[in-house]
Amino acid sequence: MDRQNFLFKTLTSLLALAGLVPFSVHAEHGALQLENVKVTADAVAPGNIGIETDKQEIRQTPGGVSIIDMDQLTEGQVDNLQDAFRFVPGVWAVSPTGSDSIFLSSRGSNLDATDYDTNGVKLLQDGLSVSGADGNNHNRFIDPLSAKYAVFARGANAMKYGASTLGGAVNFISQTAYDVSPLTLSFSGGSHGERLTRMTAAQVFNDTADALVTIENTESDGFRDHSRHTRTGLYANGGLRLSDDVSTRFYFTKLDSDEELAGGLTRAQVHEDRFQAGSSNRRDVGHFQLDVDTWRIANKTIWEIDNNRSLEFGVSYEEQELRHPIVVFGPPSLGNGLLINNRQRNLSTMMRYHHKVGNHDWLAGVNYGVTWVDGGNYNHLSGSKRDKWQTNDNDANTLELVLLDRWNFAQDWTLVAGAQTVRASREVRSTTLASSAVRQVEDDYHHINPRVGLIYQLNQEISLYTNLSSLYEPPTTYQLDDGTSTDALKAMQGEVFEVGSRGHQPLTEKSEWGWDVSAYYAQLDNEILSVEDPSQPGQFFTSNADKTIHAGIEALLSADIALTDDRHHRLTPLVSMTWNHFRFDDDDALGDNTLPAAPKFAMHGEMLYRHKNGFYFGPTMDYVGERYADFANTYKIDSYTLFGLKSGWSNEKFKVFAEVRNLFERDYIASHSVRAVASESDAILNPGAPLSAYAGIEYRY
């Protein structure tokens, strides 16, 4: 299919969806909301901009952006970001074994060596970057339960955050003492030895200061052999109102995560015993693990200069200690392999200046980040570190400048225009100790990304939008280190066109319906793609593709349907659907082959009955379509459909839930590695979880 025909069909499908689908996104029922997100506090905590500001920024964004309400997510089990992103259209997030480690892709980012550096989406906490300065999320994800809500801006719509990534950015807003009770205790657990305990203590002091501390512990035996996971965490923040106009907030995080890696299986091994560990991963062989100790300190200050001007600025510093045995070379008894032991330090700063002048709403922003990685590669015997055979020293820095204007040039019309400047530096250096051979790759990257968009407010509840934007993402240091030569990789870049609509309307006097639908078409040059070395799993080859296409349709559909006039009984359906079209564009070797890893179609939904007393009950459904595991498109992963049940009840003091997943015990492949040409003998498959049941309780004092 040529580009024009695909774009025409995409736009036609968008219009059909917007005109025919009677659903809504509403505060009282959905896990993911756009217009009316329920929050606990009326006041804005010191050092926060408030959710109303984020909602207004979404209304002024001519593209796909979603708000995730964590309070709604905890109506069921939340293990990791796979659960948090379940209803974000356009996003493909899956955990191989149910632990914190996930494969994350947004609008086709990171469609190569899955479970690797997980680049392509910038992770932020309270506006400050958690991702490395080079864009990697290799060692660290954010615990969604520590957030009040999150904003996921997909693709080029993350320009307000300055994100130079293909998939966009997600900003997690931390809970403060303004959002929770003075004391909150919660416990959840269930199948596969899973148990999560959290305690939060919080206090507001005369509206001038507040403090919150959360202690949590997570343990899971895993549904596969050698997939045990433990994590302990401390999350703390405190705010000060320095004056009527100036407030500041300090943040501290300490995490200790130890995870066993079950590894991939061949098709034959899946049929034999889908819960076994990979042959090299087992404790008696390689004992592959991912152990990370992290601490982070940050500060953000807000100055409300006057009614039309405000300034935000902040800084964060994080250290990660990684111990990561992942490869065995030859017989394990020889103790030869790859154990990565390094320290990553991230320093990040940000500034945002907002200024309203007449019909113009200006935003000027600066991000600057520096990442240092030092350490080495060791041999190991069943996961125990032995002699060092290589030293590593990687540096990266990225400067992102953004200037954006939202101009309400006529009634109901807003023109959004701006540009982003990216300047980045990457350097990787490794020394083989036996030969003193040095491999060094370095390069500088710079680009200007323009953006223009248009929003038409059809009425108070419905808006139409479109944008044309530039995309740009430099390589990570991990990708440079895996390059097939000493020549540095090029940055990927391209253009994306997007159209869409969001809104809600009354269905009846007591019911509401609405939609959030967008379609996009992107042409990319030099997309950075990695494949795993079949002879040495855990080792990768990375190079630039020539031209690729990323296109798709994203739809979030929901409703709040009153079954009685007093609204004591309601139905609240929620559906997220994603159509993907990711492929090479007349590649010399691969032609128009489909890019691997992401499904062509995915749908996640639930239909909950709700009673006024806080009780809810209903079925859930997940459908994931076919996808390829290789660039040659010779190895296909089958589609699957999972059903579940969810129920719970809450009042001012208690919240309880119960959830059953994979109700009919469906066998399926949750995630997989990627090869250039995959074969049946390749151990690349990660089976999904079987029938599982969970329950939890939360008490608020």
UniProtKB/TrEMBL annotation:
Subcellular compartments: Cell outer membrane
Q: Which UniProt keywords apply?
A: Cell outer membrane, Ion transport, Iron, Iron transport, Membrane, Signal, TonB box, Transmembrane, Transmembrane beta strand, Transport
Topologically, how does it sit relative to the membrane? Multi-pass membrane protein
**Any idea what this protein is called?**
Iron complex outermembrane recepter protein
> Which residues belong to any copy of the TonB-dependent receptor plug domain?
58-169
**InterPro entries membership:** Beta-barrel_TonB, Beta-barrel_TonB_sf, Plug_dom, Plug_dom_sf, TonB-dep_rcpt-like
Question: Where this protein primarily resides, as one coarse class?
Answer: membrane
Supply one GO molecular-function term.
Answer: siderophore uptake transmembrane transporter activity
Is Chloroplast included in the keywords of this UniProt record?
A: no
Per the record, the similarity remark reads: Belongs to the TonB-dependent receptor family.
Which residues belong to any copy of the TonB-dependent receptor-like beta-barrel domain?
A: 262-663
Domain of life from the UniProt record: Bacteria
The taxonomic lineage of its organism, from the top, reads: Bacteria, Pseudomonadati, Pseudomonadota, Gammaproteobacteria, Thiotrichales
Query: For this UniProt entry, what's an example GO CC term?
Result: cell outer membrane
